[in-house]
């Protein structure tokens, strides 16, 4: 019996910038996230997790511990970062929730009161 070997590399990125990906990949990601949102709306958490897992595979991003991705919707720089949802900083602007990635939150934190 051989000993266990990690077959996948550990150099997967923890942040992916959507705007640097091919258009078709961006579209596929949007499609999966739409499906995930629809699953969340009908409280189908299994389907929600599946769609996020597919998005993780699609992007080749390092799988977050919680298995959930967030997308930076920062209106200050439009960085289009996709990252671990556990690291998201959110704020409400009116009734709309905005998400900032760690970089944006550090560099230009928004609170919705601007
Ligand atoms: Zn950002
Ligand atoms: Zn930003």
Main beta-sheet strand count, sense and barrel state:
3 strands, antiparallel
Give the averaged pLDDT, no decimals: 91
Number of beta-strand segments: 5
> In terms of structural class, how would the helical and strand content be classed?
alpha+beta
Instruction: Provide a count of the helices.
Output: 3
- Bound small-molecule species: zinc ion
Low-pLDDT parts are: none
Shape: globular
Number of separate structural domains: 1
Radius of gyration: 16 Å
What fraction of residues sit in β-strands? Answer: 15-25%
Instruction: Tell me the helix content.
Output: 25-40%
Q: What is the straight-line distance between the termini? A: 62 Å
Strand order of the largest sheet: 1-3-2
Order of helices and strands: EHHEEEEH
Layout of helices and strands:
Elements: E1 15-17, H1 23-41, H2 45-59, E2 69-71, E3 81-84, E4 89-93, E5 96-100, H3 102-108
Antiparallel strand pairs: 1-3, 2-3, 4-5
Bound molecules: zinc ion (ZN) (2 copies).
What does this structure look like?
It is a single chain. This protein has one domain (15-108). Helix content is 36%, strand content 18%. The chain has three helices and five strands. It has a three-stranded antiparallel β-sheet with strand order 1-3-2, with helices on one face. A two-stranded antiparallel sheet has the order 4-5. Helix 1 (23-41) packs antiparallel against helix 2. The chain starts with 14 loop residues before the first strand and ends in a 6-residue tail after the last helix. One zinc ion (ZN) binds next to helix 3.
